[in-house]
Design a protein that fits this description.
The structure holds two protein chains of two kinds.
Chain A (H helix, E strand, L loop, with lengths): L4 E11 L5 E11 L3 E5 L6 H7 L8 E6 L2 E2 L4 H10 E4 L11 H11 L5 H14 L15 H13 L5 E5 L7 H16 L3 E5 L3 H7 L2 E6 L2 E6 L1 H6 L4 H10 L1
Parallel strand pairs in A: 3-8, 3-9, 6-7, 7-8
Antiparallel strand pairs in A: 1-2, 1-4, 4-5, 9-10
Helix pairs in contact in A: 3-4, 3-5, 4-5, 5-6
Chain B lengths: L7 H9 L3 H28 L3 H5 L1 H6 L7 H24 L12 H20 L4 H24 L5 H6 L3 H14 L14 H27 L4 H16 L2 H15 L8 H27 L2 H9 L4 H31 L11 H10 L7 H30 L9
Classes of the chains: A alpha/beta, B mainly alpha.
């Protein structure tokens, strides 16, 4: 009756080297095909939490299982997980010395060892899907922010991940470019991708999310379907947060 | 703007005599420069006795390299000329994707004309014998011919050939080593017989080639998460940078024989080459480190998120960007290194400066120091200018398209 568990985070605790206690027993379950939007005030640990899912941040206590593989210190497991988990960053982090097409093909050719011609064909299809196939030969510095972020999404998709993580994907964009990125993300969600999205975009959360998660002080405070979360939240912290962003 | 550009005279007036003060400064400077130039010219043309250079040109070029083996150096020079012509021509025939350039841009024509001028003029000035003059002409002609042919037909080369062509240079370097020192059936020529420009270039190129990868490793080590590796790199870099090169050269002569595995540093020439390498590597490491530090953290994170293992992320994402940032500082270090080779004369090697000192000690050429030093200065300037030009060409070629990513 339920689809398989893709992300399972249990009682995750993280201290930064400077002693800051960023995650205090954060818990999350994400099933296949779900779109989970994480919201919360800044400093609540949302980005840190999502970054633990592909090992960009380590954690000291608790456990995280991604698609059946446990996140541990074993480098091979970590690399296996990263092959299956795509990540889109606030700052795009495209490789400025490579063309758009090369940005997409780099990892599939190097990591998945797929033939270059085949990857290039797939990359061009993906670029068409996000609406920028005519820019394939350009360098990232020649594109607008919105275009860069769409390339970044296509770059992750080119690895054919089973999960996509979005860490505030529209926060660094000029307002008029936010929508084009959200549209691509919505289409991705409709295609059935499992997604975890840290964002402040309420409209996106309302329309696309299967579940909204509120984090505060390094913990998951509330989880609810979007309608319920935005109209009738059960926790005081959620109400407080919604008042602040309203 | 270009259409409204005033005639040269008008522009000069604008640049030099815009206000009364500007005019006074300009006149004073022009007078000073004229005075210096005429004095220098008068000295060079009427007073200086260039016989000291003419009589010792071979010594300055290659030291006491045995006469009957010198054909090997001629062969090497010809090969180098051909390879230079090849690379130069291909650079124009195969501009980077999306760009097209003329096959003979104005710069190239000036360079070719300068080469021809040098080939005609220099042997005359040095009063070389006819056959040797002819050889220089032949080598220049070879360079330009290959340049022309590569520019003409380079674009028609099959992809596979193009891809392996850059290997010509390392192969040529190894071949050059064999040609110079002997082996593989050639009579061996002991390093103590190498000298002059040959020795200077050999030491400098050896150190430049090896200090670069070594410096990259040290820079990576300095940023490593492994404590021992990090401390080791820091200790090494700081120790080397804290000690004067001349001290290290003397130290190296005494201890490198024990430190390096047998055969790597058999004599003074090789020991000095290793010291130069180890010395320059510490400075290159600092240049590369600044390049690494200039990259946003997100580059490494994005590469790792895509599943690239650390070494692939370094090779394909981080280093190409970091090295481009580090290039000017690194080339600056190479230029310093080239000039530092003059210190070799202090440990008794006959590099350019060492050769010059032996020449000046010859009673026949007493008091001709000015002529010798001037020629040395010009020679070094030429080599360093070539390095600088090369690096600037590389920089523009590497950075034509893209602005750096926003941090």
């Amino acid at each position: 009756m339920t689809s398989p568990l893709m992300i399972e985070a249990r009682a995750v605790e993280k201290w930064y080297p400077n002693g800051f206690h960023a995650l205090r027993g954060a818990e999350l379950e994400v099933r296949q095909g779900e779109v989970v939007v994480i919201m919360g005030p800044s400093g609540s640990g949302k980005s840190t939490f999502i970054r633990t899912f592909n090992g960009l941040e380590d954690f000291q206590k608790g456990s995280i299982t991604i698609d059946g593989l446990s996140l541990s210190n074993d480098v091979r497991d970590l690399e296996a997980i990263r092959r299956e988990v795509g990540m889109v960053f606030q700052q795009f982090n495209l490789f400025p010395h490579l063309t758009v097409l090369e940005n997409l093909t780099l990892a599939p050719v190097l990591v998945r060892k797929r033939p270059k011609a085949e990857v290039e064909r797939q990359a061009l299809e993906l670029l068409e899907r996000v609406g920028i196939h005519e820019q394939a030969g350009k360098y990232p510095g020649q594109l607008s922010g919105g275009q860069q972020q769409r390339v970044a999404i296509a770059r992750s998709l080119c690895m054919e991940p089973r999960i996509m993580l979005f860490d505030e994907p529209t926060s660094a964009l000029d307002p008029e470019m936010v929508q084009e990125v959200l549209t691509v993300m919505r289409e991705l969600a409709e295609a059935g991708m499992t997604m975890v999205v840290v964002t402040h975009e309420v409209r996106f959360a309302r329309q696309v999310a299967s579940r909204v998660v509120l984090m505060a002080d390094g913990q998951v405070v509330e989880q609810a379907p979007p309608e319920q979360f935005f109209t009738n939240p059960s926790h005081e912290r959620s109400r407080q947060f919604l008042r602040q962003i309203a | 703007m270009a259409s409204a550009s005033p005639p040269v005279l008008q522009r000069l007036r604008q640049e030099l005599f815009a206000t009364r003060v500007d005019g006074l400064i300009s006149i004073a400077l022009i007078g000073f420069l004229l005075a210096v130039a005429t004095a220098l010219l008068r000295w060079a043309l009427f007073q200086a006795q260039w016989a000291v250079i003419q009589a010792n040109s071979t010594l300055f070029a290659i030291g006491r390299y045995p006469f009957d083996q010198q054909w090997r150096l001629w062969l090497l020079t010809s090969l180098l000329a051909a390879a230079t012509g090849l690379s130069w021509g291909l650079l124009r025939a195969l501009p980077r994707a999306g760009r097209s350039g003329p096959r003979w841009p104005a710069n190239d024509r000036v360079a070719a004309a300068a080469l021809v001028g040098l080939a005609v003029l220099l042997p005359q000035l040095l009063q070389l014998q006819q056959p040797i003059q002819l050889r220089w002409w032949g080598i220049t002609a070879l360079l330009l011919a290959v340049r022309w042919a590569a520019g003409r037909w380079g674009a028609a080369l099959p992809q596979a050939v193009r891809r392996w062509l850059p290997l010509v240079w390392p192969l040529l370097y190894l071949l050059g080593m064999v040609l110079i020192s002997g082996g593989l059936g050639l009579t061996s020529v002991s390093p103590s017989e190498w000298g002059g420009l040959l020795l200077t270039l050999l030491e400098a190129s050896f150190a430049i080639l090896l200090c670069f990868p070594l410096g990259i490793l040290l820079a990576l080590g300095r940023r490593s998460e492994l404590l021992l590796l990090r401390w080791g790199s820091v200790l090494y870099i700081e120790f080397i940078r804290g000690a004067p090169l001349i001290t290290l050269l003397f130290l190296g002569q005494n201890i490198l024989g024990f430190l390096l595995p047998g055969g790597l540093a058999p004599d003074r020439v090789w020991r000095a080459a290793w010291v130069l390498t180890f010395f320059a590597a510490a400075y290159v490491a600092e240049a590369v480190r600044s390049g690494l530090a200039s990259l946003p953290r997100g580059q490494m994170e994005a590469a790792r998120s895509l599943g690239l293992p650390v070494h692939q992320a370094l090779i394909h994402v981080v280093l190409p960007q970091a090295l481009r940032v580090a290039l000017p500082a690194t080339v600056g270090q190479f230029i310093t290194l080239l000039q530092d080779t003059t210190l070799l004369s202090l440990i008794g090697l006959l590099d350019l400066l060492g050769t010059a000192r032996t020449v000046m000690a010859n009673p026949a050429f007493l008091g001709k120091n000015a002529e010798v030093y001037l020629v040395l200065a010009v020679l070094f300037w030429c080599c360093c200018a070539a390095l600088g030009l090369g690096s600037r060409a590389l920089e523009t070629r590497l950075n034509t398209h893209h602005t750096p990513a926003k941090a």
